[in-house]
Amino acid sequence: MLKFDKNFSPEYGNSVTLSPLIRRIVAQNPSPFTFHGTGTYIVGREDSSGGLAVIDPGPAMPSHMHALENYLDGKQVSHIFVTHNHMDHSPAAHPLQQLTGAKIYAFPVDGQTYSDNHTEEGLDKEFSPDVELADGEIIHGDGWTLEAVHTPGHLSNHLCFALHEEKALFSGDHVMGWSTSVVSPPDGHMGDYLQSLEQLLVRDDEIYYPTHGNPIPDPEPFVEGLLQHRRQREEQILQVIKSGAKTIPDMVDIIYADVPSYLHPAAARSVLAHLIHMVETRRLQCDGKPEVNSIYELTEHK
């Protein structure tokens, strides 16, 4: 059974040591989508003279930038990595670059599809990396090695970063211990998300460090739980359609009856992502292209 860890009380602005090579500073930007805030990770030895790596610089909040500047004072940063360009992950990358001179590394953003929905943190449309990473690309630093793992789904350009020295995976928003990830079309894609979860199951990472919330030890059963949760959600959708629900609002009212109404818009985006995937896999049909206002029905098998 999937069990979420909500026991997280960050020390905003302070550096917390999580392992010999990992420290974390949490931004004070709590929200329904960021939990208690964005965790910026600093990778490398505390006494490194060859350069530290920063993963997910976070929002460009003055308090967070001040905390990063204080911690990094007198230290060298050689790389800035971004898992994806949501507004709670990437805006501080360029200010941090101005402070440190380090290059920004991320997956290309050229192919992203934008929308006007505001049910999550929103895209940082100004973001662009200096170095575009491909899946499986390995970056060496001073005492650390990071591998880019392309995990589209939450966003098309989402990357996780595997720290080889500690068999650790910085999982961004792809896998979080406190909640499921938002998969919101058009740039979020449920089929890609499920495939990316399956991809993690063949890896040997021993711990995940999400950008929001606590680390996830023994991650394989948790990832399997996330996959099972999504399969169950699709079965729920099939059942409510069988019972007569044809539209996304009707489905959300039934499936998310015990969820606060202010989260229903985000739930509707998630249901849409499932419906698009279920139409693509021919389990459902709709009147035209799968959209928020479409009518959905079971596929007729002749």
Automatic annotation (TrEMBL):
SUPFAM superfamilies: Metallo-hydrolase/oxidoreductase. It holds the Pfam family Lactamase_B. GO terms for molecular function: hydrolase activity. It comes from the Bacteria. Residues 37-212 form the Metallo-beta-lactamase domain. Keywords: Hydrolase. This is MBL fold metallo-hydrolase. It comes from Emcibacter nanhaiensis. The lineage of its organism: Bacteria, Pseudomonadati, Pseudomonadota, Alphaproteobacteria, Emcibacterales.
